[in-house]
Amino acid sequence: MSTAMPVARSAATARARRLRALRHNLSCYAYVAPLITNLVFLSTGPVLYSFFISFTNWQIVLPPVWVGLRNYTGQLASPEFWTVMWNTFYYTLGYVPLSMIVSLVMAIFVNQRLPLISLFRSLYFLPVVSSGIAVALVWGWIYQPTFGVLNWFLDAAFSIQGPRWLSDMRWAMPALIVFGVWRSMGSNMIIFLAGLQGVPNELYEAARIDGADRLGEIRFVTLPLLTPSIFFVLILSVIGSFQVWEATYLLTQGGPAKATLTISYFIYQQAFLWFHMGIGAALAYILFFIIAIVTLVQFRLQRRWVYYR
Amino acid sequence: MAAYPRGRALRTAKAMGRAFVVYAVLMILGVITAVPFIWMLISSLKEPGTLFLYPPRWIPDPVRLRNYVDLAQQMPFATFFLNSTKIALLSTVGSLLACSLAAYAFARFNFVGKSFLFAVTISCLMVPYQVELIPVFIIFYKLGLMDKHIVLWGPAFTGSAFGVFLLRQFFMTLPGELEDAARIDGASRLGIYWRIFLPLSGPALTTLAIFTFMGSWNDLLGPVLYLSTKSKLTLTIGLAMMYHTWGATPWHLVMAGAVVSVLPILIVYIVGQKYFVQGIVMTGLKM
């Protein structure tokens, strides 16, 4: 009897402890319950669901039909898909370098101790916060061939007869690229600026003592120390360039003659204009795969050129 | 002695030359940035007949404020505005609540499956949104929620990976002493969350609020996918529709609409600029 008592008590305390742990966990899960709903129904769950959909022929109203890999093989065999890939690649190749150079120049010039500088900083950031549709509308007008501001400017300043921009097969993509750069240069500038402000002054002084001029300072101090920011912006810009949709939707709808049909708009077209859910999902997975590979390669390559202090 | 003033003069001349170059570059970039906005504003004040004059007129003459009145009368533009406002405000409230609750649990408690759950949450940040688009669309379609506003603001009440991450990082930096004191005073977990964490997290919450509001206000894809009834449209899709379907686009009204859609965010931006900058730097979020 005398030995049974402590055993019973410790069993009771163990049960009480378990109960307390259970109550603690339940209470914690109450806090993350909304997030779990999100993961299951709106993010992680759909990512898995999307994978299943990509193996089906599904037009929403009828039940899905399993087609195996046909959505993937069909796309890889279609010339349209390769046009889309080329267009996406074209956009990325134009947008990423241009955007990075412009925003880096912006950041360097805005990182000066001069009066009114903060005003320019705020101004440059304006396109980023504005509704994409509102600014795309204005750009649609600027690019308008007959009464647009751009062709007027080209004519008045250089006596050049401008092209038909958004309705010209050769110029539609460059026009979208320029719009994309204009819209996002402010946010890249901010990231570069944060990087620039982290460069210690002593290094500039040391460079000056070693006889570096202004450009030498940029070349040997600023750029090397800025490589982490450049890498960050590069990753984000490449990913962002694969996902342009708004300007395409508003201004060109992928035209003229598919000249601006990029992967993101192609997915929208397949899934939500033609209700080919299976093909849309397969394309989304192809996009996901490309982004993953490109990002991975960039992370691999960063060792060669990114300088972490 | 004589060389000194000349050296200084030289130095000031050089500094002035440099400042001149800096301002020149800044001005060129500034003009490129500003012209579309200026053109938007000018055009919204023009007589329809003077819109397409060549060369373009940079000063509207006469200034026609009536465009804004016409906008409200010819299109259910006030309704679009209200719809956008409602959806953006509800999204903001939902996102703040859901994200802060989850972030609080992640920052302060240990529970079964916590690190797994957090890893899954973070992994969401790496998936392009197109992958989620189709299944979510099908889910909402099956639930019979097409053409309902809740599709656009409801998801915010479940939080987002971005918001949870942002707030968790901030909560981790808050000192534990205040909580200990509150606990000794008998405050509950929820009480600590409400009376200590939220009040101390003003900057982080403001950043999240601004980004959520702006994202929702400027969102075009959601409305394009889900809304169809005219009286339910938001500003963004309303503007796109005006541009697309009216054959001859009424440019003076479209531009007035664009001004109206940019203005609220612009005001928020002017007031809370540092939060925008903070948000970009912390997350690199592209908008």
SSE blueprint:
The complex is a heterodimer of chains A (309) and B (287).
Chain A: H1 4-42, H2 44-53, E1 56-57, E2 65-66, H3 70-77, H4 79-110, H5 117-129, H6 132-142, H7 149-158, H8 172-197, H9 201-209, H10 214-241, H11 246-252, H12 263-273, H13 277-305
Antiparallel strand pairs in A: 1-2
Helix pairs in contact in A: 4-8, 4-10, 5-8, 6-11, 8-10, 9-10, 10-13, 12-13
Chain B: H1 3-43, H2 66-74, H3 77-108, H4 114-124, H5 129-142, H6 150-153, H7 161-172, H8 177-184, H9 189-200, H10 202-218, H11 221-226, H12 235-245, H13 251-271, H14 273-283
Secondary structure tally: strands of chain B: 0
Shape of chain A: extended
CATH topology of the largest domain in chain A: MetI-like fold
Number of strands of chain A: 2
Distance from first to last alpha carbon of chain A? 69 Å
User: From the coordinates shown, what is the CATH architecture of the largest domain in chain A?
Assistant: Orthogonal Bundle
Q: What is the molecular shape of chain B? A: globular
How many separate helices of chain B? 14
**Strand line-up of the largest beta sheet of chain A:** 1-2
State the secondary-structure class of chain A. Answer: mainly alpha
Order of helices and strands of chain A: HHEEHHHHHHHHHHH
What portion of the residues of chain B fall into strands of 2 or more residues? under 5%
**Total number of distinct structural domains of chain B:** 2
- Helix and strand pattern of chain B: HHHHHHHHHHHHHH
The major sheet of chain A is characterized as: 2 strands, antiparallel
Instruction: Compute the number of structural domains of chain A.
Output: 2
